[in-house]
Amino acid sequence: MGTEQGIFVTDPINKDAAQYLKKELSERFDQRVRYLAYSHNHVDHTLGGEVMASEGVYKTLNEQSARIKAPRFWPSLYALPTNGKVLKKRAL
Fold it and tell me: What Gene3D superfamilies has UniProt attached to this entry (predicted)?
């Protein structure tokens, strides 16, 4: 989703999907990814976050997921610390 501040993406899925999406967004829009949100902490939603995350990207996740530490076998779950607000309830 595009906003005045930049593009909002969610659930990067995996590294390949995130690389594809980032490339497509850069070709179609004159904005960069600014927000990355994880809907929840399942592996099929969170891998690839390191591809989307760059300097100036705000990352957020829901309150329950914020309490869970990334396991050793799943390091990209929180490739960078969350620096955005923790969402108290689901948007939908």
Answer: Ribonuclease Z/Hydroxyacylglutathione hydrolase-like
